[in-house]
Amino acid sequence: MKKENEVYSLKGGYSPFICKSETGLTYCFPVTSGHVDMTFEFDISDLDLDVLKSSDYRFKALYYILFHEAQSTFGTGHPKPRIYTADEFEDTKNKVLYKSEFE
After folding, report:
1. Three-state DSSP class for 18?
2. Rounded to an integer, what distance in angstroms lies between the CA atom of residue 92 and that of residue 85?
3. pLDDT tens digits for 37-67?
4. Hey, what long-range contacts does 1-4 have (CB within 8 A, 24 or more apart)?
5. Do residues 83 and 73 lie in contact, with contact meaning Cβ atoms separated by under 8 Å?
6. Are 93 and 69 in contact (CB under 8 A)?
7. In what order do the strands lie in the sheet with 17-21?
8. What are phi and psi of 99, to 5 degrees?
9. 48-81 burial, b if ≥16 CB within 10 A, otherwise e?
10. With the CA atoms of 84, 29, 38 and 92 taken in that order, what torsion angle do they form, in degrees rounded to the nearest 10?
């Protein structure tokens, strides 16, 4: 997804951002591992965006967790990289955005 379609982020540069397209919203996040840089993209809902906009803590926590989960699937030292799945993303997103901060 291109940054010119961006509708929300906390800051520019190497950080997650949300884009809008004809089909909906996409959460995009960059990950680096060794000499490999990738950007992961997953669909999110309007409600997800509202939660991300309402809490810098949840926005940052989601990226921190996603970055490390996705980074562990590829890059230097991974002879058999695997794909970070939409189900993994959904599970993490739902825990970070919809569980209490205590949980």
Report:
1. strand
2. 11
3. 889 999 999 999 999 999 999 999 999 999 9
4. 1/26, 1/28, 1/39, 1/41
5. yes
6. no
7. 6-8, 17-21, 24-33, 36-44
8. -85, 160
9. bbebbeeeeebbebbbeebbebbbebbbeeeeee
10. -20
| pLDDT for res 72 | 82
pLDDT in the model for residue 98: 96
% of the chain beyond a pLDDT of 90: 60
If one compares 102 and 47, the residue with the highest pLDDT of the two is: 47
- CA-to-CA distance for 72 and 48, rounded, in angstroms? 25
Whole-model pTM: value is: 0.88
Phi, psi of 40 (to 5 degrees): -100, 145
**What amino acid occupies position 32?**
T
